[in-house]
């Protein structure tokens, strides 16, 4: 029986595995990461490629290694050509990728991976049993680390015509879609109001001459981070932790997250593209979509204006807010009688323990960790909770 089985090999699973090995005194033969992908961070790397993101939104101290200065030291000693941008000394995506690979190599994390998909978690004497499509693994403690990456958000109007116009509408976070190979003909309309939509629109405008429109429900919302920096410390988190009312905590999360926002540098790039005429911006909300009767494209019907014609629609609408983890988590709630808040998310203790021996991180831990739970720094905070619990 393992001491730890981490379900999910993304940013959170990889970061916490590293922390448990280097700070939690967990021996290598007693820990495994269960993940269906060929490589660690597979989905994260795909998402950053598909957004055309040149620099992270988070600062240099937010990374997968143990010491806060590790990424900065890596850049100085092993990547002298590394690029950062202001403010907060934010690293390029390429530098962050290289540092992640260095962490994985130095700690030989690939040797700790079991490639399989978790199907169900059951109680077992002395721990938990995780049934997978490749057999059963048992562990004293299991960490559920699913991201929201498997549930890109499709608005209702887009779902309604997805089957009919499957070749005309895509989501940037759908499996198999790649920005690098996306070569539309004619006009592309990017739907979304945040950092992803802006970066995709600007990236497409640089590569294609068919015309790019950015369709947003609201005017650009400019924020450096997706929540204020006070949520990284006690200044804001003190009040969050004082309430035991999970409805109130959920209301706080909804209120303080800057959903559909972009940092100032991305907004400047978008403004330049708008000024050049490479991108046009339309502020409207789609009510429904229909096939264009005059061609092979699509018509987007918005209130108070003529339909918007597009040869291709690209959704950059983020992820579905419902609880991630799919059937695995749904079954665990029933099988292990796990407590959930009215919003469906886990109610956990200070050690991020949801049920006996079952811990969570990422979105599943946001009612405890707060608004940064989904981010890279959220993985670090979760790891510290788990290490301290040991």
From TrEMBL:
InterPro entries noted in UniProt: FAD/NAD-bd_sf, HpyO/CreE_NAD-binding
Cleaved signal peptide residues: none
Annotated ranges, domain FAD-dependent urate hydroxylase HpyO/Asp monooxygenase CreE-like FAD/NAD(P)-binding: 6-148
The name this protein goes by in its record: FAD/NAD(P)-binding protein
Organism name: Nannocystis punicea
């Amino acid at each position: 029986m393992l001491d730890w089985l981490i379900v999910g090999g993304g940013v959170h699973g990889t970061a916490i595995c590293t922390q448990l090995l280097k700070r939690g005194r967990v021996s290598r033969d007693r820990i495994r990461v269960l993940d269906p992908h060929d490589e660690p961070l597979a989905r994260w790397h795909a998402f950053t490629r598909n957004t055309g993101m040149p620099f992270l939104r988070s600062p240099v101290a937010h990374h997968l290694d143990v010491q806060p200065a590790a990424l900065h030291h890596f850049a100085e000693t092993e990547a002298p050509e590394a690029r950062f941008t202001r403010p907060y000394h934010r690293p390029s995506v390429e530098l962050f990728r290289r540092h992640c690979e260095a962490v994985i190599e130095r700690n030989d994390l690939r040797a700790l991976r079991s490639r399989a998909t978790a199907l169900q978690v059951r109680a077992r004497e002395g721990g938990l049993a995780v049934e997978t499509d490749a057999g059963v693994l048992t562990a004293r403690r299991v960490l559920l680390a699913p991201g929201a990456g498997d549930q890109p958000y499709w608005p209702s109007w887009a779902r309604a015509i997805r089957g009919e116009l499957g070749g005309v509408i895509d989501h940037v976070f759908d499996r198999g879609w790649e920005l690098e190979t996306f070569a539309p003909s004619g006009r592309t309309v990017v739907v979304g109001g945040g950092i992803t939509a802006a970066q995709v629109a600007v990236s497409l405008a640089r590569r294609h001459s068919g015309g790019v429109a950015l369709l947003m429900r609201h005017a650009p919302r400019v924020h450096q981070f997706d929540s204020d920096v006070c949520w990284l410390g006690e200044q804001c988190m003190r009040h969050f932790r004082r309430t035991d009312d999970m409805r109130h905590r959920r209301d706080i999360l909804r209120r303080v997250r800057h959903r559909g926002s972009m940092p100032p540098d991305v907004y400047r790039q978008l403004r330049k593209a708008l000024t050049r005429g490479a991108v046009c911006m339309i502020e409207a909300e789609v009510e429904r979509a229909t096939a264009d009767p005059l061609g092979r494209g699509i018509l987007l019907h918005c209130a108070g204006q003529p339909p918007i014609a597009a040869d291709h629609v690209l959704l950059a609408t983020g992820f579905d807010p419902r609880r991630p983890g799919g059937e695995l988590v749904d079954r665990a709630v029933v099988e292990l009688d796990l407590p959930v808040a009215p919003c469906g998310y886990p109610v956990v203790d200070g050690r991020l323990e949801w049920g006996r021996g079952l811990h969570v991180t990422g979105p599943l831990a946001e009612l405890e960790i707060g608004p940064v739970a989904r981010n890279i720094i959220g993985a670090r905070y979760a790891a510290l909770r788990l290490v301290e619990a040991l």
